[in-house]
Amino acid sequence: MINIENTYIKYDELLESVGTEVIKNRIKYISQEMSDFLVVNHLDKVAYIHEMSLTHAIMDYFSDIQRLKDYQDIQHINEIKIKAYETFWLLKRKPIQLKEQLDDDRLLYVNEKFLLSRLTSFMLGKDINMPIVGEKEISFKNYLNTLYYYLKFRRCDAQSIELMLLAFNAGKTVFST
Questions:
Q1: How far is CA 29 from the centre of its chain?
Q2: The pTM is what?
């Protein structure tokens, strides 16, 4: 126990390498996404965005990405990896908080619902308004239900989320008509 200590990360180097404006813009963008989600789902009266938690999630995301870039000696990463790492840190930090104790336990998973919505939008991309019917609708809903369950109850890491997004894209490509 004598060698255990708390280590608090200083983000000075990260702010310098990534850029303060880039980080501020990402925080602002995701905060707006969350705010829109809360309003659209009529949750803005019972939930709020914990800014410090969101800021830490974004800083953790950029720290991970910077380590990945340094290790792989690359300048840019793909969109799937970006979304996977953002999702992981937002899930871990849970920046959407309930304002008070509520009897509706469905609200307990508001962060997971937000992330599912965000991932669904990302996966569908430009096809977001295309109708999904029949067998494809059943398969898609099953996939989303499984993903939601995974976000709620399984140990997620960025790599597994990345694999889920890659698998979805592969399925879209292979089974599209």
A1: 13
A2: 0.89
- CB 6: neighbour CB atoms within 10 A? 4
Residue 124: Cβ within 10 Å count: 15
The answer to whether residue 7 scores a pLDDT higher than 70 is: no
Overall size of the chain counted in residues? 177
DSSP 71-110: HHT-S---HHHHHHHHHHHHHHH--EEESS--S-GGGGGH
Q: What is the per-residue burial (b if ≥16 Cβ within 10 Å, else e) of 72-81? A: eeeeeeeebb
Map tokens 């969109």 to a residue. Answer: 79
Cβ neighbours of 175 (radius 10 Å): 10
